[in-house]
Amino acid sequence: MSLVDSYRRRGKRPKPFPTRDPETVAVGEGEVTTYTYGRDLYDDMLAAIDGAQRQVLFETYIWKGDATGERFKQALAAAADRGVEVYCIYDGFANLVVAPPFKRFPSSMKVLRYPVYAAGWRFFDLRRYGRDHRKILVVDDHTGFIGGYNIGSAYETEWRDTHVRVTGPAVWDLKRAFADFWNLNRRRRLRGSERPLLLETASTWEPSIRIQRNIPRLWVFPIRGMYLEAINRASRNVWLTQAYFLPDQDFVDALRDAARRGVDVRLLLPLKSNHIVADWISRGYFSQLLDAGVRVLRYRDAMVHAKTATVDGTWCTVGTANIDRLSLQGNYEINLEAIDQELAKQLEEIFLVDQSHCLELTSGEWEARDLHRKFTEAFLKPLRPLL
Ligand SMILES: O=P(O)(O)OC[C@H](O)CO
């Protein structure tokens, strides 16, 4: 699969795509800033790390050993050197291709590599097979970042993704999410003497925001339920932006039912993602979605990697979970869920900017596709439950 993807990318030059400047809205007792361009996000993440006073919690699925990855490594090491507690987690499998020297860190940083194989002798324990797919940064008690961005130079300028910065009480939930994962894994992955990452609990609840977490080790997968609940109660619109769309049939049915009851359902996907097989399988759902009245918008020229949704201009989510089985029923994931009209409005505006860079797929165009495409979709259908 990777070979085919690399072949497809050969000689391709990155093309520009429309973005918006980061924008901040007040949500409850805190603020949420949305980012749609990697450089803006990374600048603010690095500034936050540089300004840390006490503690940095950094977790990423992919951490490329390129210039951008190096900037993060240097900033985290510098924070640790000046006495800030720096905790890092990265996924071992996702970074197998990263050169080993990059993955050597100064002893002042506490680093947990989530292992490629975590089941040990429990071969049949499915709770131990999820990847750590989360992307989190928390600085001191005041600032958190969460969203679709991994760390790497291509993501900085060539991919269209969405991330948010959060301040206020919701930061505590991000801290707790990081600490729970750390504590669940620290004993076997780090020195036995390593103490648990203890956190005080938040004294206030933020009613507008929930941090939803999939935790395979505990067999807890609320993100799929969160999406289904929101889609099933939609009365006006459901606008989804997804990098990889390989849902189960219940998810597809929820979208179709919404469209059939008159909800404006739009699905924004990459025209060509970085995973060709995922694209082919995803297309296998288009006929039934288009038939029900779902609009399929395909983002051109750049990889859209965001995992976001808005419903009825009120509910919204930004996170790490793709709409596929690996994310919704397999991996460690984290999504911010908010019920807030200002934030939902901002995400709707971002959606419309993205939509302006899309080709809309019509039923006629789709039904007229080549026979070999129809055959490929049918041939790959059995792979759906695996991705
Ligand atoms: O797994 P994601 O959604 O972070 O995407 C990562 C890229 O697809 C890696 O190829």
Strand order of the largest sheet: 1-2-9-7-6-3-4-5
Radius of gyration: 20 Å
Structure annotation, total helices: 13
Bound small-molecule species: SN-glycerol-3-phosphate
Shape: globular
CATH architecture of the largest domain: 2-Layer Sandwich
Mean pLDDT: 93
Biggest pleated sheet? 8 strands, mixed
Pfam families: PLDc_2
InterPro entries: PLD-like_dom, PLipase_D/transphosphatidylase
GO molecular function, one term: phosphatidyltransferase activity
GO biological process, one term: cardiolipin biosynthetic process
Question: Would you kindly provide a written description of the structure presented here, covering whatever features stand out?
Answer:
The protein is α/β, with parallel strands linked by helices. It folds into two domains: 12-207, Endonuclease, Chain A; 222-383, Endonuclease Chain A (Endonuclease, Chain A). It has 13 helices and 20 strands. The strands form four sheets. It has an eight-stranded mixed β-sheet with strand order 1-2-9-7-6-3-4-5, with helices on both faces. The chain has an eight-stranded mixed β-sheet with strand order 10-19-17-16-11-13-14-20, sandwiched between helices. A two-stranded parallel sheet has the order 8-15. A hairpin with a 3-residue loop joins β16 and β17. The radius of gyration is 20 Å and the shape is globular. The mean pLDDT is 93. The site of SN-glycerol-3-phosphate (G3P) has 7 residues, from loops.
